[in-house]
Amino acid sequence: xxxxxxxxxxxxxxxxxxxxxxxxxxxxxxxxxxxxxxxxxxxxxxxxxxxxxxxxxxxxxxxxxxxxxxxxxxxxxxxxxxxxxxxxxxxxxxxxxxxxxxxxxxxxxxxxxxxxxxxxxxxxxxxxxxxxxxxxxxxxxxxxxxxxxxxxxxxxxxxxxxxxxxxxxxxxxxxxxxxxxxxxxxxxxxxxxxxxxxxxxxxxxxxxxxxxxxxxxxxxxxxxxxxxxxxxxxxxxxxxxxxxxxxxxxxxxxxxxxxxxxxxxxxxxxxxxxxxxxxxxxxxxxxxxxxxxxxxxxxxxxxxxxxxxxxxxxxxxxxxxxxxxxxxxxxx
Length: 332
Description:
The protein is an alpha/beta fold and 332 residues long.
């Protein structure tokens, strides 16, 4: 890892922007540990990716209690790397984690209850070997728990010093507004809203983005490449080592339909004319609006991460290019 002063890193290859109406700035690209950092993955490659990210200006690392596999192992991996490789750099990092999906068996290992959220954060801190996280999220809206209970638990974690900020993830618009209101009244305003966002997944444009901006809440998008579909990876079939080739997981072969591939092929042609990869153009498309604070990339190698960071070195998309992309995406 390069041993350079933090100010040099701050001015490095990834620009920073304010997160909503807070004093916190986030890099335009953040590194997610949803995949590729579990016990089943290459630890040495994980170290390389974390080091490369940090040395090139990515200071935000996004985790959750159930990232792995197995669940919890991504936090353990990051905790090991943090302790060995970055013992003096904690205050230069934004580390986030979440709870909301099933993490352990029984009635208290899932959802939005105070019992589950506080227990989960305590477990996450042990795995991460940290006293606090910078951002703690409610990972999903739980209709079986009163929203006041969930938000009050988040607020108490901040007041206890176990989290500096709180956020929500994958909340519908009406519940997001209610959550913003409760947190603000508690004196712990919502910092950020996280949800899926890509060229092939645009539902947040129907209210989430505008509502977050109205309430001074930042927005961060995950899966900006639609789990690698919006790249040149699947243009000529499904590679054996790709996510879609695996028998289990969130991306299945049937999701890469002929209609999707036709759109991806047309988008790739635009990227080639711009002299960049489709993945790079897809990231720039997500960041075309100031309403999006950052996007979370999930990479399997340092090379992929470098390619993602290099996206920020290209000129922004023109109005004509954005219109052409919209026409392609709107095709049935």
